[in-house]
From TrEMBL:
GO terms for cellular component: lysosomal membrane. It holds the Pfam family MFS_1. This is Lysosomal dipeptide transporter MFSD1. It is a multi-pass membrane protein. It comes from Azonexus hydrophilus.
């Protein structure tokens, strides 16, 4: 990439700021069910398995959209798909907020997942096109830090707002903001630093697109990064996206506000970790050792959660902050996938690496709920089911095994020394 003019530099930061705001909403929508799980269970009189399906609907559609989004980012460009995504996601959030039944809530969550599914891959494409290659992980880390404000808001702040004003009003407001950001993406974002704003990209030709996608999928170096992402982000999305708050309340006897504070610490640690780990990897000029270290620390913390051991509150807070920092390790998987594939296909390569975690969460959230329902003894509090420690351990074990998969795959990551090492055959 050649040097940018001052106007182009200004435009890239403006565009990135708008997309980062959309990414905040994406993270908020992803983790919001955890902060209001008890409210949703009571509002729709649902079991753990049905609640898992409601939360997982977002992840199902998000997973299905990852490869199409990568293709669209490389062909149509980020601007168009970001604008359309903001509108669809906004309408879905409005429907979810107004939904009188579980069925309509499911439709709303599906539209939300469809709308926000394009945000991250489009953001990665913008960073890949507008910024220098050796700054990719650092810039993505900054975006993750900002985006994670949404997950932090989905913890204690959402819980407090839901108790004060009701959860429906929150999602209606988020829907309006999403619609506004969709319009801003169309007005401000440009696909590339060229005179026309149009990027050089593959022709929108089915044969070209499929051959490009197959090239990424057939590249064996793509898959270790995808598996690390599957294990680490899949376990993160599964538990933090729905089960963390009920787990802390029912296993450790915490008040709802205290449990929500733990969730916010997890998200906050993740936000800081994305910035720190991406920057550390870029400065060291290494990907693999950093990935191995954080993924194994992540599994160790999950083993503590699985034990359900009682600990002082201060130590519990520290553990969740550390959990957040280690969770951020999977943010390197996008750089790892991008750097072993053709630069022109950065959208497809990052989307392939990214889809595993969402697929894992889509499957695991209902599975964890099903495991919980198997051990339920009929106890109800405030219209929501209550589970004993042994039942919770069954659910947490399934999530811990996902985390272990990610750690095992980290040993197969190909070291790129933070540069693109793809070679044409």
């Amino acid at each position: 990439m050649g040097p940018l003019t001052p106007e182009q530099r200004r435009r890239r930061w403006m565009a990135l700021a708008i997309v980062a705001l959309a990414y905040i909403l994406s993270f908020f929508q992803r983790f919001a069910p955890a902060g209001i799980a008890q409210d949703l269970a009571a509002a729709f009189q649902t079991s753990a398995a049905s609640l898992g399906v409601l939360a997982a609907t977002y992840f199902y559609i998000y997973t299905l959209m990852q490869i199409p989004t990568g293709i669209l980012a490389d062909t149509l460009g980020p601007r168009r798909i970001l604008a359309l995504g903001g509108i669809i996601g906004g309408l879905g959030s409005l429907l979810f907020g107004f939904a009188p039944t579980l069925d309509l809530a499911l439709v709303g969550r599906t539209l939300v997942g469809l709308g926000v599914s394009v945000t991250f891959i489009a953001m990665l494409k913008l960073v890949a096109v507008w910024f220098e290659e050796n700054r990719f992980a650092t810039i993505v880390g900054i975006c993750m830090l900002v985006g994670n404000l949404g997950s932090v808001l989905a913890g204690a702040p959402l819980s407090a707002m839901a108790q004060a004003t009701g959860w429906r009003g929150v999602f209606i407001g988020v829907g309006v903001i999403s619609l506004a950001l969709g319009v801003l993406c169309w007005l401000i974002v440009r696909d590339a630093p060229t005179a026309t704003g149009e990027a050089v990209r593959p022709r929108f030709d089915r044969t070209v697109v499929l051959s490009s996608l197959l090239a990424v999928i057939r590249n064996r170096a793509t898959w270790p990064a995808a598996l690390v992402n599957t294990g680490m982000s899949g376990s993160f999305f599964t538990f933090a996206g729905l089960w963390a708050t009920p787990y802390l309340m029912q296993v450790h006897g915490m008040e709802r506000s205290t449990a929500a504070n733990h969730l916010s610490l997890w998200f906050g640690g993740f936000a800081v970790g994305c910035l720190f780990i991406g920057g550390l990897s870029d400065r060291l000029g290494r990907r693999k050792p950093v990935m191995i270290a954080v993924s194994h620390l992540y599994v160790a913390i999950w083993l503590l959660l699985l034990s359900c051991v009682t600990m002082p509150l201060s130590l519990s807070y520290l553990l969740f902050a550390l959990l957040g920092l280690s969770t951020a390790g999977f943010s390197l998987t996008w750089a790892c996938a991008k750097e072993v594939n053709p630069p022109l296909l950065s959208g497809m390569s990052t989307s392939v690496a990214n889809m595993g975690g969402f697929l894992c969460a889509a499957i695991m959230q209902p599975v964890v709920g099903w495991l919980m329902d198997l051990g339920w003894h009929g106890e109800m509090v405030g219209g929501a089911r209550v589970y004993d420690v042994g039942t919770w351990q069954n659910g947490v074990l399934a999530v811990t095994l996902c985390a272990a998969l990610g750690a095992a795959a980290s040993w197969r990551i190909r070291e790129t020394r933070c540069r693109n090492i793809w070679q044409a055959a």
